[in-house]
Amino acid sequence: MQIIKTVEQWRSWRSGNTHASKSIGFVPTMGALHKGHLSLVERSVKENQINVVSIFLNPTQFNNQSDLQAYPESFETDVAQLERTGVDQLLAPDFNEIYPDNYQYKVIETSLSKQLCGKHRPGHFDGVLSVVLRLLNLVQPDRAYFGEKDYQQYQLVKGMAEAFLLETEIVSCSTVREADGLAFSSRNFRLTPGDRELAPKFYEILSSRLDLEKAVSELVASGFKVDYVEDFKNRRFGAVYLGEVRLIDNVPC
Ligand code: AMP
Prior knowledge:
- By secondary structure, the chain is an alpha/beta fold.
- The protein has helices at 7-14, 35-47, 65-70, 75-83, 95-98, 117-120, 124-139, 151-163, 193-198, 200-206, 212-222; strands at 2-4, 24-29, 50-55, 89-91, 143-147, 169-173, 225-232, 235-242, 245-252.
């Protein structure tokens, strides 16, 4: 696996003609890789001839600076994990490579991005869409893989790809969970042992058949601070805090 840090380096590799006719699969991530990320990578490797992963901790999607500061980073372990997967290129650019304009230009979606998590994290999806558009334009993959754990994000990225006539197919992948039901997330690394024990209750309550009000009061009674729980287009979405750690999840309903 080659590690590429600059746009120039990437473009010179991309324009090489040894792989011109091969399909490219792409998995964008913010690092601190876990089994959820790796499931996307495995799918990409199965479906494409060349596979690219990016690790870029995107500051523009953090509406809360302390969340960004506390976000786990484990670049060397990430590289070691990716080495075992058959990924060809790891893109690990810095801020200036991805934002030569210092984020003067952004993608703003005006409807879905204002709901659910968007309502509670102003500007979050502007940052997500802006970085994903930049990465997709740079990599120009045939397929890009996104997890259903971030279902709203997947929907928005898919909508953006259609709106801006991108040729990349946006592929969704099921949420990967721990044996106790907790969705894998980089933020899980920050949970205290006590909160980690409590965390699977979030999924348990979210996927129970309780009505919304009951589900919220069960979560509160169990010790979660509820950011929101909402039903939207046949799915139940939720975000909760355990201490400073914000967890999100969603299930069909
Ligand atoms: P992140 O590094 O959090 O930006 O996530 C990168 C990609 O991995 C996104 O498409 C996420 O939806 C996906 N992802 C994160 N956690 C999981 C999970 N538990 N199951 C499936 N996909 C996931």
